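User: Fold this; tokens only.

Assistant: Input:
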Amino acid sequence: MNKIVKRVMTMIGAGAMALSLLAPVTEVSAATKNKVIEIPVNYTNVSWEDLDKCEGNASKTDFNIWNLGEPSAYSESYRVSYKLYIPTSFMKKDASISVRCGVGLSDVTGDDWKYGGNLDCGPVDFHDGVLTYWNEEQQKEFTADYASVKKSGDFYVITYDYATSGVPQADDIETDITKSQTVAPDFWIGVQGINLTAKNSAIYFDDFKLTKADGTVLVSKDYTSDKKVDGEYRIAPVADWDKEAKELKVATITDNKVLTVKSTKATVKVGKKVKISATATPATKITYASSNKKVATVDAKGTVTGKKAGKAVISVKANGKTVKVTVTVKK
């Protein structure tokens, strides 16, 4: 009978210790996973001066997205919006990301589609935490009020929203597009790195929306259910643009580093052990440290051992985050 009583008491004690660890989960910087278009880049520390020498091609990735809804009547204006994820590791001192984009138009009135020109969107230069553009006529830098930027974990996220206007511009337009003609739009964007090095890396494109002047939405995509995208990219400089073109791919990113700790309080008896449950996303080494080793110690796996009655704080660290767990040791 005594053995049964002891076993029951042991189970109750174990249950009590387990309950002491069932406090609400503590998450530091909750992760957000996104499916996005991956844009490979290979930035090679090109300076602004170097850009003039090589006509702006070095350290640049161009990509196009095609088949943006059924061909429809020409519109003088299109509204373009999207998000661009730029790794924070890119943006060291003097580094800049230059973004240029626009809507290309093809005349599909006849059997032979002809290039009808390009509608430029507002340029963006991201540097020193701000978004600007350079006005060539005034030789002055202005704030890009059609875009905003915020830091989200491991990325700077640029949110862009711009309405084009005017007639298509290009040096080699094959046809004169009028409002009565049927056109098929495509979207292009060029992203260039200045004063930064990032070999075989990537930026990411998401939440693309293209709307006609009359409010008709031609495309609105967050790529959640997509496995591939109808488009291509090229990394400059290249000798043969057609040969070097590669298909766009959809990737999944986590835009925040996370440290999750199941409970910030724990109770343990002298000579007994209790485990701190912690998870790092993305997975990385988690370290543990006790504020008072005479009261409680903790090993590399988060197992706490009670030494003497009192309280100790266990600091749990990973991904640049810290969560503190208060451990109460009882006799």
